[in-house]
C-alpha cells in the first residue's frame, strides 16, 4: 500500500495538532496526564504547553466552575512555517461537562 497524505504529495505541512488530557487512572488510582501530537511538532509543542505555568493558567482559567477532579481534554492547533512551530491556538476543551470551542 502506498503512502497517503502531504508526504506522499510532497506538500508542506502547515499545521499540526496536540491533545492534552488529564484524567483519573484506574491503574494508579490518581490523576494522569497525556500529551500526544499528530506529528512531531504537535507533540513537542504540546509538551512545552503543559510545562508552561502561563499556558496552563490559560486553559485552567477557561475551565468551567467545579471542574477540579473531572476528566479534562484540550485540543491545540500548531501552525507551522517551514516545518517549525510558529503559533499556537487552543481549539477545543472538554471538562466532562460539555465541550467548549475557543
Look at the helices and sheets and give the structural class: alpha+beta
User: How much of the polypeptide forms β-strand, as a percent range?
Assistant: 35-45%
Could you state the order of secondary-structure elements as H and E?
HEEHHEEE
- Characterize the overall form: globular
Number of helices: 3
Number of extended strands? 5
Kindly report the spatial arrangement of strands forming the biggest sheet: 2-1-3-4-5
Cα end-to-end separation: 38 Å
Low-confidence stretches: none
Q: What value does the average pLDDT take? A: 77
| Number of separate structural domains | 1
- The percent of residues in helical segments reads 25-40%
Provide the gyration radius in Å.
15 Å
**Biggest pleated-sheet summary:** 5 strands, antiparallel
TL;DR of this structure?
25% of the residues lie in helices and 40% in strands. The protein contains 3 helices and 5 strands; from the N terminus they run αββααβββ.
Question: What does this protein structure show overall?
Answer:
- With 102 residues, this protein is an alpha+beta fold.
- The chain has one domain (13-101).
- Helix content is 25%, strand content 40%.
- The chain has three helices and five strands; from the N terminus they run H-E-E-H-H-E-E-E.
- It has helices spanning 6-9, 40-51, 53-62, and strands at residues 15-24, 31-37, 72-81, 84-94, 99-101.
- A five-stranded antiparallel sheet has the order 2-1-3-4-5, with helices on one face.
- The termini are far apart.
Amino acid at each position: 500500500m502506498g503512502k497517503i497524505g502531504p508526504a506522499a504529495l510532497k506538500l508542506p505541512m502547515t499545521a499540526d495538532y496536540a491533545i492534552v488530557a488529564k484524567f483519573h487512572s484506574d491503574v494508579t488510582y490518581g490523576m494522569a496526564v497525556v500529551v500526544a501530537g499528530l506529528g512531531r511538532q504537535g507533540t513537542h509543542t504540546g509538551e512545552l504547553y503543559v510545562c508552561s505555568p502561563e499556558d496552563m493558567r490559560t486553559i485552567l482559567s477557561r475551565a468551567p466552575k467545579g471542574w477540579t477532579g473531572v476528566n479534562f481534554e484540550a485540543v491545540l492547533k500548531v501552525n507551522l512555517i517551514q516545518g517549525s512551530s510558529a503559533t499556537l491556538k487552543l481549539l477545543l476543551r472538554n471538562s466532562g461537562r460539555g465541550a467548549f470551542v475557543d
